């Protein structure tokens, strides 16, 4: 092609309808980003929870209940009404959060609080300049760069993992509850905020629990809580899991943690080696495919790839790892478990959790 020849793209007829539809798609995304930010604020200020308890209410009444400045509450309500989250009665000047919406936006007894998850975009977007630099130099990031990330991750995983842990997740392994009652050794790899272990240590006092994570700051609050509760069967330690595990265990957990490691394959080999005969490894990871084209119908695929770009890949690279990313997928995860020596791997989906896959692996 010479300098003056039109490119193939320019020779193709311009589809006005397609262009208009795409512009609408991007505007929808823009409004979605605005709603996500405001939903995060609504969650952190307890505005959704207060509205659920007081609807219908005026902006003055809501601000008073939430102990917030009315002018900001009124503008926030404008976003919620425009986004069709909250309804507005202009005659009475009152706002209502429908019960059907409140079920996905409040803390009260819910494992579906999407408002908590809405905090992630604002947390990682604070690092946009740093991530831009990483696009150029190819380097990584470290956990301490991410501010509230561990706090938010702990809150979200409390819903998806801790609340249903005893009733829905432990039963994936036949006889596990009975073994925990009798007393066994358990470790949580990449334990993060450690809330799952706090629950288990209280529920199963005869078993012994270890929380292992590279970032000591993540589990520090849980460690303090364990001491204040007098839980002498729970201990935490900071360790690079890629370098092997100290000790032997009957059960190992890893909740959304393996893909972030510097060397996930080495961690899985260490897990296999650390299990006693008859032991089991229960791993939770995003229930996506390893193939991009298979994820087009996934309900939150753009969000997951965004989180992988902004957090999971950089923190792995920052440890000198391969940057496996959050979307390594069920196929790759299964292959790596088998490569680590796990001869029996089953993958299950649970009704309460449409986004994650549950791997039960045995040597």
Automatic annotation (TrEMBL):
<feature type="domain" description="Methyltransferase">
    <location>
        <begin position="181"/>
        <end position="293"/>
    </location>
</feature>
<protein>
    <submittedName>
        <fullName>Methyltransferase domain-containing protein</fullName>
    </submittedName>
</protein>
<keyword id="KW-0489">Methyltransferase</keyword>
<dbReference type="InterPro" id="IPR029063">
    <property type="entry name" value="SAM-dependent_MTases_sf"/>
</dbReference>
<dbReference type="InterPro" id="IPR036390">
    <property type="entry name" value="WH_DNA-bd_sf"/>
</dbReference>
<dbReference type="GO" id="GO:0032259">
    <property type="term" value="P:methylation"/>
</dbReference>
<dbReference type="InterPro" id="IPR053173">
    <property type="entry name" value="SAM-binding_MTase"/>
</dbReference>
<dbReference type="GO" id="GO:0008168">
    <property type="term" value="F:methyltransferase activity"/>
</dbReference>
<dbReference type="Pfam" id="PF21320">
    <property type="entry name" value="WHD_Rv2258c"/>
</dbReference>
<keyword id="KW-0808">Transferase</keyword>
<dbReference type="InterPro" id="IPR048711">
    <property type="entry name" value="WHD_Rv2258c"/>
</dbReference>
<dbReference type="Pfam" id="PF13847">
    <property type="entry name" value="Methyltransf_31"/>
</dbReference>
<dbReference type="InterPro" id="IPR025714">
    <property type="entry name" value="Methyltranfer_dom"/>
</dbReference>
<feature type="domain" description="S-adenosylmethionine-dependent methyltransferase Rv2258c-like winged HTH">
    <location>
        <begin position="33"/>
        <end position="107"/>
    </location>
</feature>
């Amino acid at each position: 092609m010479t300098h003056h020849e039109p490119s193939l793209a320019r020779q193709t007829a311009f589809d006005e309808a397609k262009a208009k539809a795409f512009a609408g798609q991007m505007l929808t995304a823009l409004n979605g980003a605005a709603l996500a930010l405001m939903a995060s604020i609504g969650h952190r200020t307890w505005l959704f929870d207060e509205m659920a308890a007081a609807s219908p209410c005026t902006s003055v009444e809501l601000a008073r209940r939430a102990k917030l400045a009315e002018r900001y509450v009124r503008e926030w309500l404008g976003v919620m009404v425009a986004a069709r989250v909250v309804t507005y009665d202009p005659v009475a000047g009152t706002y209502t959060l429908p019960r059907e919406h409140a079920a996905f936006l409040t803390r009260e007894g819910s494992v579906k609080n999407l408002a908590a998850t809405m905090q992630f975009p604002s947390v990682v977007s604070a690092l946009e300049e740093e991530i831009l630099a990483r696009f150029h130099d190819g380097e990584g990031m470290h956990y301490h760069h991410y501010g509230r990330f561990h706090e938010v991750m702990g809150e979200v995983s409390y819903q998806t993992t801790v609340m249903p842990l005893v009733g829905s997740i432990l039963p994936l392994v036949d006889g596990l509850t009975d073994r925990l009652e009798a007393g066994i050794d358990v470790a949580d790899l990449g334990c993060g905020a450690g809330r799952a272990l706090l629950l288990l240590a209280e529920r199963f006092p005869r078993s012994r629990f270890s929380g292992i994570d590279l970032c000591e700051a993540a589990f520090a609050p849980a460690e303090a809580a364990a001491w204040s509760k007098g839980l002498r069967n729970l201990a935490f330690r900071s360790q690079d899991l890629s370098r092997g595990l100290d000790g032997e265990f009957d059960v190992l957990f890893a909740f959304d943690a393996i893909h972030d490691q510097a060397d996930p394959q080495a961690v899985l080999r260490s897990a296999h080696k650390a299990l006693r005969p008859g032991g089991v490894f229960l791993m939770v990871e995003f229930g996506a495919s390893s193939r991009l084209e298979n994820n087009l119908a996934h309900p939150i695929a753009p969000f997951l790839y965004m989180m992988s770009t902004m957090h999971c890949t950089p923190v792995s690279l920052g440890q000198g790892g391969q940057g496996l990313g959050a979307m390594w997928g069920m196929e790759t995860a299964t292959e790596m478990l088998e490569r680590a020596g796990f001869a029996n791997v089953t993958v299950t989906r649970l009704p309460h959790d449409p986004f994650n896959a549950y791997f039960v692996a045995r040597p």
